[in-house]
Amino acid sequence: MRTSRISRHAGPLAGIAAVSLLAHALLGSLQGDLGQVALLTVSWTVALTGLNLVQGLGGYPSLAHASFYGGGAYVSAVLLDHGVPMGLAALAAVGAAVLVALLVALVFSRTRGQYFAIGTMFFGAVTTLVFTNAADLTGGPNGRPVELGLPLDTTLLLLSASLGLALAAFHFLSVGRFGARLQAVREDEDLAEHLGVPTARVKLLAMVLSSVFGAWAGVLFAQYNGVVAPSQFTFVQGFLMFVAIGIGGAGRLYAPLVGSLVVIGFTQLIKLGPGVSQIALGVLFIAVTLLVPQGVLGGLAALRRRVRPRGAVA
Fold first, then answer.
1. Alpha helices, DSSP H only, in the chain?
2. List of residues 6+ apart from 94 with CB closer than 8 A
3. What is the DSSP string of 128-185?
């Protein structure tokens, strides 16, 4: 029994370790636009692994995730500027995000479908206004510099390690009891509640856990980037995070990584003119939704299932 459990986890954990090592190598070697893409991809993957709990496993479209991402960045930046040690600043930033997520979840955890999406969209719009207009704390539309509390090498190590730990945490949560409850909510919430699943509590816990991933990713992003601005955490960014999970393959382990690569690649590397890259990304999202509703990873898995029997016969 123990051997089967170990073998069940060995493959995914080995893949996660390889991804983490590759991320560390790329973060340390790439510069310019490619370096920025590597930074955003890694930090987004950490953040979106939390969103993958709510949206991927639970089936609830949250548009508030950029708020937790930005909240972690801003709170840590403000505290560091006031002389708070890096460890305490990061802990306070994550704690603040958890408290806000708890309030949001208490309000919206009993709503469903489009009402949950609208509620989180409203929250995301409010936080964008706060980031833009609370100039004394956030620096206003132009943003604010970030006191670097960590050496660059340490930040790179934390980014790549956080990527691996986030994916590993999602793996264990998804195959455990909590993941099964989230998937039951996604498939049929009424039936899940009838069978004894505390659906509102499960959604609340998923939202709170999601905020931890998002805020921590924001802290690390701020440390590497050296400046934070409202334009990095707008409602549009929250929507792009939602799109990234859908493109990658909601609920799958590497969906945040694949989705981040596609979204960041389109918005950072493909220069089609103001707004055109986002339009092209929207067209791609619609195409993926229509042709492979399970996302890129789901489509690849379906193709592999079709090819494997042919190979076995041959």
1. 2-29, 32-51, 65-81, 86-108, 113-133, 135-138, 152-175, 177-187, 189-194, 199-225, 235-248, 255-268, 276-291, 295-313
2. 72, 212, 215, 216, 219
3. HHHHHH-HHHH-GGG-EE----S-HHHHHHHHHHHHHHHHHHHHHHHHSHHHHHHHHH
Give Cβ neighbours of residue 275 (< 8 Å, ≥ 6 apart).
Answer: none
In total, the chain counts a number of residues equal to: 314
Q: Is 64 exposed, middle or buried (0-12, 13-18, 19+ CB in 10 A)?
A: buried
Is residue 228 classed as helix, strand or coil in its secondary structure?
strand
3-state secondary structure of 80: helix
Contact at 8 Å (CB) between 55 and 207? no
User: Rounded to an integer, what is the distance from CA 60 to the centroid of its chain?
Assistant: 14
- Rounded to two decimals, the pTM is 0.91
pLDDT digits (tens, 9 = 90+) for 20-49: 999 999 998 988 888 888 999 999 999 999
